[in-house]
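tool=predict chain=A
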Amino acid sequence: MWMNDQRWGFEEGDEWDEVAPTPEATASEVVDELYGQDPDGAVTVVVAPDAAVQEVRVDPDWRRSVDPRALNQSVMVAANNATMRALAWQVEASQAGQPVEPAAVARVQEETPLTKADVRRLLDAVSVELEQVSARLPALDRPVAVTSSGRHVTATSLRGQVVDVTVTANWAASARAAEIEAELFDVLARLRRESTPEPFTAAQGSAIAELNALASDPQALLRRIGLLQRSEES
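tool=predict ok
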């Protein structure tokens, strides 16, 4: 959390020196971690900007506000809040980011002529890559369940969201906060890894990127297939 001076035009005197907190990181900041909590502050789940779980913190006095039988709900809310915070940051970062790679590809390849055979090979390559993506999609509709090594915590996710958490109430009632943190982290970190498909960037290669680049610049496309001369652009 960081602090930022807020000055309003209608304020005078010492009120100008008031400091207002900004609780959420913006896309313009360099962010190493984000977090989500349950309403009682009993559980805090810390994630990286890509939503990978980095740490789980349990308030040492959590039993004062949460019944051990309800700790599972606190964990689920904190985990999903952390994921939503990461997704929101990713959306904001993408909107505020630099031009994407396809535009750079278009600039590099702008002068290379495209024959019918080139177009056919490009479309065939795109089809192969799209099939690879489609093959991974069914996994998103299957629930993934993980149990901690200590066997006291089990969690299930579906489409990237934690939909169920089970915590052994008798164990939670007497276990130390550090022990609970260790098992929660074990479960949530593995659940995130096992329920998230491998990123497609490596398999994507240049075919989809090049196709996106061509679609983003119709004049360059017409030039490359010989239907537009440079003198006609103006």
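The longest strand covers residues 161-167. The mean pLDDT is 76.
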